User: Fold this.
Amino acid sequence: MMGGIQGKTAIVTGAGRGIGRAIARHFVDRGANVMFADSDEAALSEAMADFDEADPKVRSFSGRMSEKLATANLLSATLDAFDRVDILVNAHRLVKASDPLDTDLDVLEQLLRQNMMAGLRMTQVVAKRMIKQAEGNPDTGSGGAIVNLSTLAAQHPVPTMLGYSIAYAAQEQATRAMALVLAPHRIRVNGVRFGSVMSHELKDSLRDKPELRDRIVEATPMGRIAPADELVDTVLYLACDASRFVTGQILTVDGGRSLADRVGTQTV
Assistant:
């Protein structure tokens, strides 16, 4: 791909499993230095088992992305390991049901904090570092790229998942707002809205409700559920200089499902 990521440094949150892990591993394969970040230590250890401990391109960080201190410590750990950060992928998320007529405010706050505020705070912290890095090179290349993973629930509200839907609708608006703020610094902020993709959460849902698979496949014009790897190249495109004039956009990867979403229950 034109304008690849070889030699660049990326932070990928939610990298312990599922889509986040697939993105982080693909970035390593493409020659990037990658900080795998996740709140699940066991999942993170499993993800890191695929790499040589002495590999200088790979590091890991365990912490709750919803906590301010963890955000600051993650950036510090990345700078200690690689001296800079060029790419941020906010792929961590929390999937939890919430009743629109009887919403537990604690659950709603948790979903907003994890799925919107954590990524926004990480964006703010990393963007400040990217701005500082770009100050010495005002006329060369990209100042950085930030990619936020979203969900069809942001566009097509899921009645049984009120907090989840609201959080990602807010996250998408934050993506657009931060794109405007950071564009003068040559930092691009984009999102990827996905559905009918085999995430870790969807695997769990299908284990509990195997009949859901047929409903998703039927609702997807391309007639299948895509593996996580098929989402990765879209994220790579937005992270690299091939998309250097693209910012504030939410690209949809869903096999056409959002054209006529008929599932209406679970959008993960």
User: Anything to note?
Assistant: The chain has a mean pLDDT of 91. DSSP finds eight helices and seven strands in the chain. Helices lie at 18-29, 41-48, 68-82, 105-135, 162-182, 200-208, 211-219, 229-239. The first strand starts at residue 9 and ends at 13.
